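Dear colleague,

Following up on yesterday's call, I've attached the two folding results inline so they're easy to grep. Please treat them as preliminary; we haven't cross-checked anything against experimental data yet. The first protein's sequence and structure tokens come first.
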Amino acid sequence: MPERGVAEVGTGLPMELLTSWQSARSTRSAMSIETPLAPHLRGRVIDSIHENGPKLVEMTAEEVRELRRHPIGLRLEPIRYYWPALSHTEVRMPAPMAGGRPLPVQIVSATTGAALGGARVKAFTDFPGRAGATGTSDAAGMVLLDLGSGPVLLERLYIQAPEPGYWGAYFSPITIVPSQVFQLRPLSFPFVDSMRHFFPTVDILGGAGVKVGVIDTGIGPHPDLSVTGGRNTVRGEPEGDWHDNGSGHGTHVAGIIASKGSPAGVAGLAPAVELRSYRVYGVQGGPTTNYSIIKAIINALDDGCDVINFSLTGDPANDEPLRSAMEDARDRGVLIVAAAGNQYRTAVVNPTRYAYREGLVVSALGRTGTFPPGSYEESHVNSSPGGNDSNDFIADFTNIGDVSFVAPGVGVISSVPGGYAPRSGTSMACPVVSALAARVLSTSPNLQVMPRDRSRVTSWITELSSRANSLGFPYACEGVGMPT
């Protein structure tokens, strides 16, 4: 990377080197980094973002040391990893087996009795120690849990519903027996989830004229969503394949922002925005990298996005390249909105720490009564600290500390491939604020005529903050409150 920022300017050795590697592409073979311009430089270039911008390189430890000994006016930064900001509680160690055979349970529909395949079951015999068993239901709805022949007393049982179309389930404590059947409720419409409770009406022209980029797992296709384009920045994948990678995360995030509300009437908060998809997660799953994210940011800036939504979380270590890219976005008048993360009331990590300085950070709120009793969402209820309304709660999973706003993030219903589903996480709260920010820009003549620079972002944040109301939670949990 350039020594400063994400783009080299002027002339000299750094510019000559970066320009010479411009032809590198992640879908081609690596090109040699060797050049007479820098005799001590060795390695391979895998990808280039811009002629004068960052390059992705492969180098051995010795090649790195040699470069450190002979500086060339460019900086070498490590890859960092990031994940979608969804709430997850995972089994980390197996429970002691009480008997030789696994315990079978079945997952079915509460209305039809039909078997539900693809439901994820997490059974904890020792929740603080994260000990237990986990499994996914097969086509017959059956799951085999390595807990012994049973009955088994569980401290907690989570059932993540298959998507689309169902609510999950949560029990604490519960004794399960062999062949026990668990019923999951299907979604029904209309339904007032947490987002629709706080934002019951939607202006179909909300966000008109504003371009929102979603850096995520890709978007759609989905009948509720209109995406004008984007880019895939995953190494080795086609640049034009910016659709959902199969996880549904980016499609769900996009629906919260810009769903048109048909055919089932599940509308987003700013359905008139121009939506663009920047896919940074591959079809094989797993985390993304800071390089893919930076490439997506730069492409979003080049495409003229006004808002960039970051529903991802990750590395606590310093990530100077990502910080530089976020600074560049703010310098060009683009508002970054980031999820606070889901590490259960701990301090925010990157990229959120940088977003707090350059844009906005959003924690997650829930409300009792906006999801069915016994649903997965009940596991996120936390009564402390209390707000002005006893039905509102700060989600148990949300990170706190450097927080700008709070928004609904528990049991939010939105689009996923093939239909609709409820999901929870600061990933869901973040696009609520992205949509509200788009609505503010769309209806503010003063912001619209400002130059696209840092002053526009500062004024934009000030305007959005002036429309926020405290819900009575500590500042570390809600920032200045919830925007309207």
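Below is the second protein, in the same order (sequence, then structure):
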Amino acid sequence: MDPARWEHGSDFDWSLEGGRLEAPWSRLPHTLWGSGRDALRALLAWGRDERGWRRVLVPTFFCQEVIRALARELPIASYSEAPGDDPAERIDASECEVVVVVNTYGMRPRTRIETRASVVEDHTHDPLSGWAFDSDADYAVASLRKTLPLPDGGVLWSPRGRRLPAQRAATDAHSRATFDRLAAMLLKRHFLDGHAVDKKAYRALAGVGELGIGTGEISGMTPFSRERLPSMPARAWRDGRARGLAAFRAALGEVSGARLLEAPFAATLLFDTPALHERVRRALAGRRIYPAVLWSLESPAVHGVPERHVDLSRRVLSLHCDFRYGADDMRRVAAAVRSLLA
């Protein structure tokens, strides 16, 4: 590949290896959805109608767009939790409520939560963790497209074997949005291979597709992703992510102004100040390295977000570290970070 066309960014490579998916939900009741938020919304809507759920509690450090989507099904409240905090062990909630526990960045310590509410675990950032395989929650969800090269997809399962909402077909609007994302993935692959593809074209398609998948009515997974999912060697890819993180950690070493969190989802840096975070983010983009900000809390969708969690959101930066990138790629990214912090 032409180094001038190298990018470290936000869309999955199209290149796949054959394999077989071994997942926590494989031998349990589960249903497939258009996205992780679709899976959560479907569960909440079903629980509202079938089990009398009246409110959902989410952690204060959580994706605000997901919260806005969930609010279409049930009223939202929050409980205080963020990466680095002592995880919640007791949540005061009633039997007609549901608590969402999020393994943020894949680094939340597993705790047994005392609550009268139903518990839903969100394993999006590490769906093949030991915790996910050994969960005893009432329900669990994961957004599959965040860790697998799929244009859409989320899964809902019950570690306790509880009844689930019936699986649905993909809506027309969701199918169109998925096609846009799939087209963007293919075009980006061609761009990175040196073909005459306009970068603005695939970025525009990706943006339109992402917006479409994140909004609209609850949708099932498209047939394409549903059929592609079982043959993905996700465990081997997870192992590759760990090797990439190890290479990044070794190459980064000790730096001034930031520290690397123990987060298996991505190379996740916590900066000393928001100003340094923003300067490094912009400079990395100038070097064709595109980090993710998970998540902005500047306009909270739920009351009760502590200011320290807002400050934390301004200082965290995640650098992609998945099967697309070898050890040399991650060392290259680490060198860029080191030079910007020197």
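For the second protein, one point worth flagging: The longest strand covers residues 97-102.

Best wishes,
A.L.
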